[in-house]
Design brief:
Number of helices: 11
Number of strands: 9
CATH superfamily of the largest domain: NAD(P)-binding Rossmann-like Domain
Distance between the termini: 31 Å
Structural class: alpha/beta
Helix content: 40-55%
CATH class of the largest domain: Alpha Beta
CATH topology of the largest domain: Rossmann fold
Order of helices and strands: EHEHEEHEHEEEHEHHHHHH
Mean pLDDT: 95
CATH architecture of the largest domain: 3-Layer(aba) Sandwich
Shape: globular
């Protein structure tokens, strides 16, 4: 089994907490150090057994062999700067759902030949915080690595093996390709789910719509229960790709609205059948 001496996990929410729990359960490291800003989260992580030691970010990354940055996107640079001041042998990865800005920050702060390998585990849920973390979150789930051409080959290999040790199926692609794909596969679905829930909310002044809400609306708006601050940040970090995805979505909405307004049953059936067939393939 792959073993590191000490793995640090920055950010102890659903993803970071799950990384810490999985590392301990699978004996990937001898020690796990967690980083969280609030004393309550640090205490909870130790009490739950997710980490051996809990630090504030101000305590720094001294003594780590491997660092997983699972913070909000806006806090990633803080830990990259810590990494730049640390032992040059320190390996690092992240878990952010937007990769191009992080890759650019890593190159700027650490230089082109560095030991940071961007990653995005396609896992999680609309639930947030350490309480939502589970040791098996990454079992069978895809984790995308986004190494640069100059990435240290040994770091690339070690980071791949780390995510595989947590149960992930690892694939690699460029940061730009990742962000374009995720704009459609994750960011647009969240964007549209938030919009759907907000649209219904604005019309439901008396609660009558909510009274009649069945499983369909609950399914379609499940991910609208996600943390709004987190998702506003993701949309802004991947703004160009998300805007392109929204443009495509709006065009299809326009086509469906026109078909409905003109009683064009054929066009409606064609769009709906295409949607159904694709949804069925998602479960293959």
């Amino acid at each position: 089994m792959l073993r590191f001496g000490t793995v640090g996990v920055a950010g102890l929410g659903c993803i970071g907490g799950s990384v810490a729990l999985a590392v301990r359960q699978r004996h990937v490291a001898r020690r796990v150090v967690g980083f969280a800003r609030t004393p309550a989260t640090r205490r909870a992580a130790v009490e739950r057994g997710a980490v051996d030691e809990a630090r504030s970010p101000e305590d720094g990354v001294a003594g780590l062999d491997f660092l997983v940055i699972a913070t909000p996107l806006s806090a990633v640079e803080e830990f990259l700067r810590m990494m730049a001041r640390a032992d040059r042998r320190l390996l690092a990865t992240d878990a952010g759902s937007v990769k191009k800005p992080i890759a650019a920050a890593a190159r700027s702060i650490l230089g082109p030949h560095n030991r940071f390998v961007g990653a995005h585990p396609i896992a999680g849920s609309e639930k947030t915080g350490l309480a939502a973390a589970t040791a098996n979150l990454f079992d069978g789930r895809v984790t995308v690595l986004t190494p640069c051409a100059e990435t240290d080959p040994a770091a690339r290999k070690a980071v791949r093996e780390f995510w595989e040790a947590l149960g992930s199926r690892v694939v690699e692609m460029s940061a730009s390709a990742h962000d374009r794909c995720l704009a459609f596969s994750s960011h647009l679905p969240h964007f549209s789910s938030f919009c759907l829930a907000a649209t219904i909310s604005r019309r439901d002044r008396t609660g009558g719509i909510r009274l009649l809400a069945g499983q369909g609306v609950k399914d379609a708006t499940r991910i609208a229960a996600s943390d709004e601050a987190l998702w506003a940040e993701i949309f802004l970090f991947n703004r160009d790709a998300v805007l392109l995805a929204v443009d495509h979505y709006q065009e299809l909405l326009r086509q469906m609205r026109t078909a409905l307004a003109t009683r064009d049953r054929g066009t409606l059936l064609r769009i709906l059948a295409t949607a159904r067939a694709y949804r069925e393939r998602l479960d293959d």
